[in-house]
Design a protein that fits this description.
With 363 residues, the protein is an alpha/beta fold. 51% of the residues lie in helices and 16% in strands. The strands form two sheets. It has a six-stranded parallel β-sheet, with helices on both faces.
Length: 363
Amino acid sequence: MNKRILILTAGFGEGHNSAARGVRDGLARLAPNQADVELRDLFAEAYGPINEFVRRSYLALVNSAPRTWGIVYRWLDRKRDYDTEFRRFARLKSHLAPLLERFHPSIVVCSFPAYANVLQEILGSKRSCKCVVVVTDSITINATWYRSPADYFLVANEQSASVLRAVGVAPEKIKVFGFPVSPKFADFRGSNRVLPSNDSERRVLYMIHAATHGAPDLVRRLVELGVDLTVTIGRADNLRPAIEKAAGGSNTKIVGWTDELPRMLHESHLLIGKAGGATVQETIAAGCPMIINHVVAGQEEGNARLIIETNSGVIALSPAEVVTQCQRAFADDAKQWREWGTNITKLSRPRAALDIAEFLLSI
């Protein structure tokens, strides 16, 4: 009989959705005939326009007022009454309860805090399904993740596992698999980059995040630096004219939304981008050193720390600093880049989604 696996996510930051898709795709690739899988965003389904307003407000806050969000984040971390708070999600429970009754999952995978508590609130001592929480942040892990009745907590690295052990999570509940990036990252495992030896072979990928005010200036500076530059703008098509103008007549490649990020990261020598959970973990999976140019207070601080403390990249918060660090990375026969590359490769777990799929099928 097939395992029935329900994956629950929410659109409050790309890391949650990325992890959920990674788990789903890992199961689809590893065991397409051994598991029935549903992936749902019940916050979007239950709260509709209200959820979209809150989601957009959250994203605006973390990108335009990150210090304010940091205050909220730390307040959430200090709370002890999550069960009481989550009882207020009546509409969420009214959507989850019939889904559980219809689908009868043997495992519920949660890539967003709150679901584990709500699941327990609905099923109580009658809960027969396993609850698995996929923690999408590193090192600075908010208490909303681990103050829940989950059976297992899946973390991306040993640094995060040590944090959970330190706050009292039972060691047998903690599993270190890596972040469940797309299984496509595993397809590039073992492929070697051409070492940077001149300007034309110094491939830099700049992923523009939501705080875009300095993006055209940075593109201009990188073009002047003479690197082989690719810029991703996602679905922000309104940015394209300004980025094209900044790129001038160079050979800069400007890419909209794409599912080719695993390949692009493996072909790049450096990633410039924000310290989001998905972004940092994808660059680690690809073994591509990172220059972090934006850090949201709270959850992204740990992601940045992971890069810095393992000497796998650097933080540079202004366009001028980013260019300086690019020059430093490639100077002296790319000595700094080689050091970063060696270190980030030690963290890389491109098979994480497949390993998590194996684990889910085993419990």
